[in-house]
Each structure stands twice: as C-alpha cells, then as structure tokens.
Protein: CRISPR-associated protein
Amino acid sequence: MEIGEKAHAPYNFVPFSNRIMVRYQSPDELPPHDVWDPALKSGEIHVTLEAQTPVLVSDGRERNTARFFKGADGTYQIPGSTMRGLLRQTMQILGLGHIRVKEDMEDYQIFFRNVAGRSNSIGKALKDYYAGSVMKIRTERVNGKSISNPEAVCGGYLHRKEGAYYIQPTVSPVLRVSRKHKDVAQFEDLTAKSFPVSYRENGQTVLELSKEVHPEWRQGTMLCTGRPVGRVPNGLYLFPEEDLQAESIPISEADVLSYQADWENRKNVLKPKEFWALPREGEAKPVFFLRYEKHTYFGMTKMLRVGCRYPLSHGLPPRHREYTQQSELVLDYPHAMLGYAGENQAYRSRVSVGDFRLEGPGQVLPGIKTVLGGPKASFYPNYVAEGKNYNQEDFRLRGHKLYWHKEQAKADAPANGNEKVAATLYPLDKGSVFHGVIRYRNLHPDELGLLLWCIRLDPGCFHGIGMGKPYGFGRVKATIQRLVEWDAEALYCPEGLAGAAEEPSNPEDAVETYIRTYDRYVSAALNLKKPKKEPSLRGCPEIQDFFYLRSAIRIGEEVGYMAMSDFSMCSALPDVETERKNAAAAAQPEPEPTSMEDMYAALKNKFKGL
Structure:
C-alpha cells in the first residue's frame, strides 16, 4: 500500500443520528402489560430467514471450534436472543434511538503506544503527544547505542486489597539488566514473567545477580517483559523493594476499567495473557507507571500503553450526550418497545422473539479454518470520523458498525504462526431456511410499523447474522409470511385465540401500510420537511446509509481487512455516504454528445492518456 492510500475494511458505519425520537414523555404513558388494550395492536409475525451465503450461529461450546446452535429437541436453531439483538440494533437506527453509555456502548479510554508511526501518517500528532508530552522520551547514547528513555516512567508494585488497586513505589529507580550480564545465564525462559532475586549494584549498574537468597545483598524482583519483537530481545528490568515509607498511589476505578478493557481487547494476542492481567486479591505485581492529567497509567513494559485524553462517550453527537447527563429516563422506541431495567424502575418488553428453527435436515459444510476478529475501536482511523483521533476534543465516533454483504463467503486461511488462534467453522450451507414467530402486545400502529420495518427492511436488503460476517457469511433475507392480529374483545369468546386471530388477505400491503404509518408519525413529530414530496425518514442521510449497507453486495479487497503493515500508511476509512454517492454517480450513464464540439471533447477526454 502506498502512503496516503484509501483505507478499506469489511465493515463501515451508519452515523449516529443527531435526532433522537422520544416516543413517550414518562413511564406513566407506557401501555400496561396486565390487560389487552383493544385500541392497540397485539398478535404474531411469522417470519422466514433464507441464507444467501453460508450461515453460522455458534453454540459456544468449544473454544476453537464453532458449530451451529441446536435447541433442546436437537434441531438447528437461531436462538430468539440472537434475533432480538439483531432487531434491537436495527431499531436503534431506524427508530432514531438514544445511545445509552454502558448499555448500548462501552465507555473507556482507548489505550495506545505510538513510538514507530510514520512522520507523514495520520498518526503523527498522536505520536508526538505520546513521545513528547506524556512519556517525555529522551534519546541517549549508551555503550555506543541509541537508547530511548521515557523519563516520566517510574517503577512500583501494583497491589489489590479489598477490591481496590494501588501502587507502592520502589525505594530506588528500576535498573535495566543487559542480557549479556554474566549472571543472566542462570535464569531460564526469560519471557513474560517476574521472580525474586538478590543483587548488588552501584546505583546505576547491576553488579551481581542471584536466584538464591543472599541476606547481605539487596532484594528485588526481576521483570522479564513480553516476547521479542523481531530481532530485538525483550527487556530485563530489576525492581528494588517497595518503599513502605512512601505514600501509596491509589488507582481510580476509571483507570482500572480502562486497563481491563484494553486487556480484554488484546488478551488473545498477549502471551501468556495472565501475565498482563490485573493482580488478584492479595497479590502484587511489579509495574511501570506514570501519572498524567489526573490519570495513572501502568503496565509491564517501560514503553507504556497510555490513554487518549477523551473517553469513547465524548465522541457521541451532542444530543446523545445531553440526554445521557440528564436524570430523566429517555423513552425512545427501542426501550419503550423492547423494555429496560434501571436502578429504580424496569419495564418488560412488549415484543417476544421465539427461536427460529431450520426447515429440513440442513447441510453442514466441511470445517473452514480461519482467524476471527480484527481491528477494534482502538484503530481510530476507521472508528473516528474526519481523520481525527480520541485525543482531539472535537472527535466524533463514526456510528453503528455493520459489515458489508458479499456475493460469496470466503474466509482467509490463518497465516503462518497463527494456527494456534485459528478457529474452525462448521456453517450451514446457503439456501438454509429458518422459520420463527415474533409476538407483539399492546403496540401502537406506528410501533408495529417500526417493528415490521426492522424485520423486513426495504426491498433488496439483507440482514447479517452470526459468525464470519467479515468474510461474507451470514447474509440472510427476511420475509414476513403472515401478519396475525388479535381482536382483544374476541379473546374472551369460546373460540379463544383461534376466533380472535385476524389476517389481512395481502400481508405485504398490510406490512407496507404499517411501515408508512410509522414513517409519517415520526416525520411529523420531528417536523421533517420535503418540498413537493411527502416527508419521509428515507430522506435522512443516516437512513440512506443504513439501507445502502444492507443492500450493496461488495467484492474484492476493497471490503477486506488490511495487512498489518498498511495500518500506519493509510488515510482514514471513507464514510458510507461517500461510498453511496460514488456508487450512484458511477451508475449514471454518460450523457450523449449534442454537437460536434461536445463529441470531440468527449473523445479527447476518453483517450487523454494516449
């Protein structure tokens, strides 16, 4: 990849809407659960899902093997919880929902270590911030070699006591130990571990080391950092004893959570992962640490991973942040329909999603070995809009992450050395059909319209479900086969549900009518205006982006993961609106020349490279 070349990924983002549709002003307005309201809508939606590409919803039983989920009766099923999660995410978008911090998104500082970024990459500002402002890295010559020394970094021991964490500083600075030191040979496997040692030193250099206890020597802990990077061996550091007279440094809950979130995101590549984990109750670990802008950063390498200035929630649109800070509950469509549970109140869902069972025996494909996972929110060129990063006050998150659909599913084989983290997938073949029932109770017509829209989507659109979506797995088409409405008054007749069930003669028309009802209701509530046309949510850019992501079938490397070597060289990921408009422009036919001058200009432009 050339420097500045356009980034690409198997996913993109639907922007968070600047509008939030509040459906109810208070919990008192919510329909009750203990009665059937004849003025509201109750019934069933019978849905089929047809796999356009192989699909896999894992049973989660085996660590590195994924087999399709089976119900208690032994049949292949898509669990109702999986479908509910899919509908909820879709409802957040089409329902203009409020993004709740800690419920709809995790909130923590993104950690990074940026010492090798290219000077002309989009990460230059972050690199300068890391090396200059935070770490205060100074380059010095030692024995004829250039050594980078982070002057802001100190040494100490990270403790956990009664659930809280604190650092006790060392009595003197941490000493680096050369691998060529005469006493290092007595220690085995100096990779990602720590152990007690006795030693002698002269204030700057370790003179003698021993794994045996020498009471007359000083006592300390040898820290061997992670695995070697290329040909550069991992560092060896000697931590003196704790300074029990020094004041302990408490670690805030926010800093602990940020470190834990960073560890969770990286634990599959950390070897061994337990070495990098927080200490257990009553334990202590030698750590490097620094304090910067009211935060304490710590870790087991001297070139620490540190947090960006702002947490993820800072990148939400202003309206979402305003609602998050207020004490009143925001009753948008997703929470009013699908329920919520808070500290002081809760409301049960008015939508019940059943399991979707496979029709027929199904065809399980042979095992497909690949490496799952990819860049996460820490890769800011893809997750932050307009080429910014989490260190800039005006950064904005791109939005809801969705994977592009692909014509065919094809997983990348694990690269050499990645076999240990590879997973073997056993999906059901394309053409598999699942059937399920979604029940609803006491919905207003506009709410039912939104639910139906979230299930069916627009013509030509597909849902993405299950594992392997980055490689094209899980593209499914949803079809509403039956729309059943129950007459609340007829429920008390001798026939019961059978007598109360009503079905439209043309379910497609009925579904479309309900969707239009929702569209009109929200368009009027938000005062959407469209000259010469009926106002519609479909005119909102974020809704157009969503349906483009759910309809476009992409091919080639433009929707694949980038190589690791390309990350520091690429530009920011293009947004969906740009992709959508470029696709629309490319689909427009070239205008026919209307004169000899126009024809000559068109030919000249066509063959300008000759």
